[in-house]
Design a protein that fits this description.
The chain contains 18 helices and 24 strands. The chain is of the alpha+beta class. The chain has a five-stranded mixed β-sheet, with helices on one face. A hairpin with a 2-residue loop joins strand 22 and strand 23. Helix 4 crosses helix 5 and helix 10 runs antiparallel to helix 13 (378-388). The longest helix is centred in the C-terminal third of the chain and has 26 residues, at 527-552. The chain is globular and about 70 Å long. The chain binds zinc ion (ZN).
């Protein structure tokens, strides 16, 4: 189960290009042998772990998928590394791509690997290789099974490995970039671009912003916390996918993941330097939803969901071991299953205002799609975890276990074949409009197709699932802010985002339908319509309460005016601006690795509960 470095066949670039076209049918071992994967000695987690354990310093078995367009920088289809340091005002020359040998070299032609650590180009390649690997984690069939878009115009995320002096790292949609800062502790310089956890956390933000760009327009602190959760979950699962880390964990923990480990601890070097503890955050916590639901601090809140998913990691690996797997095998099966369990459901989430409950329901539904008979009781185990964490109510937990049709048909009066819906935004819109009544879309709603894509996902044992058609649709409902509780915004009109995500398989079976209704009158008058209207009314009330809480906490600033790319420590988490006279709120464009809340809230740095 633990592959060592494979022998390679010396292919030419032309041959590699031909083989690349057929890569979906090759095993990763064959890919490595044919040089369709690029080996690179990345730091194993971060330089702090290297000091701790010399044997676990670099990951020599690490490699990233090859692609035809790799160039200097590094630059690839989805990333462009630009090494501009805004503090020092220096542009460092890029790593050079050696297309014949499949290596990066420094400007003097020296090979970039762990023998050349002092080279600034090593850091450029380290961050790029880590990102290529993270992208593959999301896009391959055990993940979303499709190419993913970014949340901005353009296809390349700009990566700035040494953006300037500071204790943070950011994903920034406006400058289309990931920015990694560095800082000094005593004689040591800490580079955030060398921490796999920090890179993967920030990339998690970029991925989610691409999949659900309207989450940035949510006023809900819980939705902001969901963003942080996905960052931390990315870091944990991508680390766990690493062969060498699993080997280390097996040796360190003897299979018991309930103690502090390199898996549960996030951003070790950064945490040590900035927070004075052996990690920035830990996935080991006992927090329940009731402890965080009225909070406003998104990093703190996110830990409930991270903790729940880590409970599932622990229970899965324990179950695999009980069934006689070796520790190495148990961990390998756990990560394979976790990737399907945790990443695939992202495609089912509603387009707006995602809550922890939404994610739990999407996870459970995806598990049912992939594993309908569930002989090992994984679904029940997960329901218990979510109920215990109070992410799901016990009533919801009970209802989920009632017998039901696993693959229902979507009942719409005007039939559109799934393949036709998938054809274009215009076709998908006609499907929505023709079936407004059945889809609970108000007559007056200016409904729009937010995103349309298809995906081929795999099951945990690598079988292809039927092609999925994923349709996100949204509309805005005007809401008047009446009363003192809205402070400086009283009397203004804002809009509440509404909509849904429909997932069909190519044969028209309904895989999932998650909705965020509004309060405008519906066209139908049946029981279902009434239930939907009640849900919409509750949602509007919750929207107003959440907005008032944000305003009361002083957590809304005017639109951030700072220059893009400059480290802003005191940006409010939510900003307000006007579009056509209607007030719009958005999350701060900088989404960072740790919170700056103490700067404006006057509170001390948040603590980790363990
Ligand atoms: Zn973050």
């Amino acid at each position: 189960m633990m592959p060592s470095k494979p022998k390679t066949v010396d292919t030419t670039k032309d041959t590699r290009t031909v083989l690349y076209a057929a890569r979906d049918y090759l095993s990763s071992k064959a890919e490595a042998e044919l040089k369709l994967r690029i080996p690179f000695d990345v730091y194993f987690q971060d330089p702090a772990l290297r000091t701790l354990r010399r044997t676990f310093d670099f990951d020599e078995t690490f490699d990233v998928p090859w692609e035809p367009g790799i160039g200097d920088g590094p630059t690839s289809a989805r990333f462009a590394v630009v090494d501009y340091d805004a503090s020092a005002e220096t542009l460092t020359p890029p790593a050079k791509w050696d297309a014949r040998d499949n290596f990066f070299r420094d400007p003097e032609g020296v090979l970039l690997d762990k023998g050349n650590l002092a080279s600034p180009q090593y850091r450029q390649v380290n961050v790029w290789a880590t990102l290529q690997n993270a992208l593959d984690f999301y896009e391959n069939g055990f993940g979303l099974g499709r190419r993913i878009p970014f949340g901005f115009e353009g296809n390349r995320l700009i990566v700035v490995p040494n953006a300037g002096y500071g204790e943070n790292a950011y994903y920034d949609r406006h400058s289309k970039s990931l920015q990694f800062y560095y800082f000094d502790r005593g004689k040591k310089r800490v580079y955030t671009c060398l921490s796999a956890d920090i890179i993967n956390h920030e990339f998690g933000h970029a991925v989610l912003d691409g999949l659900r760009p309207l989450l940035a327009d949510s006023i809900s602190a819980e939705t902001a916390a969901f963003h942080e959760f996905l960052g931390d979950l990315s870091a944990i699962l991508i680390a766990f996918r690493n062969n060498k880390l699993r080997k280390w964990l097996a040796a360190e923990t003897g299979g018991d993941l309930s103690a502090d480990s390199a898996l549960s601890n996030l951003a070790e070097e950064f945490g040590e330097a900035v927070e004075g503890q052996p990690y920035l955050r830990s996935a080991l916590n006992k927090l329940r939803y009731s402890a965080i639901k009225n909070d406003q601090r998104q990093h703190y809140m996110s830990q409930v969901l991270t903790g729940a998913m880590f409970d599932i990691v622990q229970k899965l690996s324990a179950q695999y071991m009980k069934r006689g797997r070796t520790l190495g095998e148990a961990f390998w099966h756990t990560i394979r299953r976790m990737q399907c369990m945790a990443i695939q459901p992202l495609d089912l989430l509603p387009p707006v205002d995602v809550t922890f409950e939404d994610y739990a329901l999407a996870v459970l539904r995806n598990e049912e799609i992939v594993n309908p008979t569930d002989p090992d009781g994984y679904r029940q185990m997960m329901i218990d975890v979510f109920v215990d964490r109070e992410i799901l109510s016990s009533e919801t937990g009970r209802k989920l276990q009632e017998p039901h049709d696993v693959f229902p048909r979507l009942r719409t009066p005007v039939y559109h074949a799934a393949a036709d819906i998938a054809g274009s935004h215009a076709a998908a819109y006609r499907f929505l409009d023709d079936n407004r009544s059945a889809l609970f879309i108000p007559y007056g709603a200016d409904v729009a197709v937010q995103d349309l894509s298809t995906a081929v996902k795999l099951t945990t044992d690598a079988r292809r699932q039927p092609r999925q058609v994923l349709l996100q649709y949204t509309w805005r409902e005007d809401v008047l802010l009446e009363g003192k509780r809205f402070g400086q915004f009283a009397g203004e009109t804002t809009s509440m985002l509404c909509g849904g995500t429909l997932a069909l398989d190519i044969d028209g079976n309904l895989l999932s339908w998650m909705r965020k209704p509004g309060s405008q009158p519906l066209m139908g008058t049946g029981d279902d319509d009434e239930a939907e209207a009640r849900m919409g009314a509750r949602r509007k009330e919750a929207f107003l309460v959440a907005l008032a809480a944000r305003i009361k906490a002083g957590r809304i600033g005017e639109i951030a005016g700072g220059e893009l790319g400059i480290l802003e420590k005191t940006v409010a988490p939510l900003t307000a601006s006007k579009v056509d006279g209607i007030l719009r709120f958005s999350l701060s464009p900088h989404v960072g690795i740790h919170s700056d809340e103490h700067d404006e809230m006057g509170e001390s740095q948040w603590q980790i509960s363990s």
